[in-house]
Design a protein that fits this description.
The protein has 228 residues and is an alpha/beta fold. It has a single domain, classed as Rossmann fold (3-Layer(aba) Sandwich), CATH 3.40.50. Helix 1 runs parallel beside helix 6, helix 2 packs parallel to helix 5 and helix 3 packs across helix 6. The longest helix has 23 residues. It binds adenine (ADE). Adenine binds next to strand 5, strand 9 and strand 10.
Length: 228
């Protein structure tokens, strides 16, 4: 049986090129989220534009699993650079995720520790990560590393520094860690590919409007290549 892959992007700009590449596409709206059901290079795919942030992403991932029965989920979109030496239009493929805004340290847990799931890091599926890395090939400079997720657009180099030192993060986003948690709870393999739109520092708000669309298009091309 052929597997069905769920693809989640937060914003229209992050999914529109993928949607345009889908064959036999049909749209369904559930919980205000548009899902496109069809194929990519002939392989079953379900694409969603979940909206920005962890709750939107979590709702979307759970619908992908419970309603559409996807076999794996890939998160795609733009990200802020956290690791030294990565710049706009570079790619980051997730090896693992952390939710940097989860903090029960006042009651003795390490920052990022998700109680009841009892982990800080959510490991991406190794097969998905390898296939995403292979899909990019030498088309872009790529880092495989930790994606730090939180309900905030990071635009402060003190925060970026914290994400590097605490979690060894390569990039930051606002959805990946939430999708990772939902998939972990359900036992569904997951991964992410992100393209850098800004440096997550004081320059970020200036860079983002200029670079987000280009970075989103670059990332979408890599997701389409994953299905080839
Ligand atoms: N997505 C793209 N840039 C980001 C940033 N600086 N912080 C969080 N999410 C992002």
């Amino acid at each position: 049986m052929t597997k069905t892959t769920g693809i989640i992007g937060a914003m229209d700009v992050e999914v529109e090129a993928i949607k345009a590449a889908m064959e036999r596409a049909e749209e369904k709206i559930i919980s205000s989220i548009p899902f496109t059901v069809g194929t990519l290079h002939g392989k079953p795919a379900i694409l969603a534009r979940c909206g920005i942030g962890k709750v939107n992403a979590a709702v979307c991932a759970q619908i992908m699993i419970s309603v559409f029965g996807v076999d794996e989920i890939i998160n795609t979109g733009v990200a802020g650079a956290v690791a030294h030496g990565i710049v706009q239009n570079d790619m980051v493929v997730a090896s693992r995720f952390v939710q940097h805004d989860v903090d029960t340290s006042p009651i003795g847990d390490p920052v990022g520790f998700v109680s009841t799931v009892n982990t800080i890091y959510f490991e991406a599926d190794r097969g998905i990560t390898e296939r995403l890395r292979a899909a990019i090939g030498d088309k872009a400079h790529t880092l495989v590393g930790t994606i730090a997720t939180g309900d905030q657009f990071v635009a402060d180099k003190r925060v970026t520094e914290k994400l590097r030192t605490l979690f060894d993060a390569a990039a930051c986003d606002m959805e990946g860690g939430a999708i990772a948690q939902v998939c972990t709870l359900a036992g569904v393999p997951f991964g992410a590919v992100r393209c850098i739109s800004d440096s997550a520092d004081e320059q970020a708000t200036m860079d983002y409007p200029d670079f987000a669309a280009k970075a989103a298009a670059t990332c979408s091309a890599m997701v389409i290549a994953y299905f080839a």
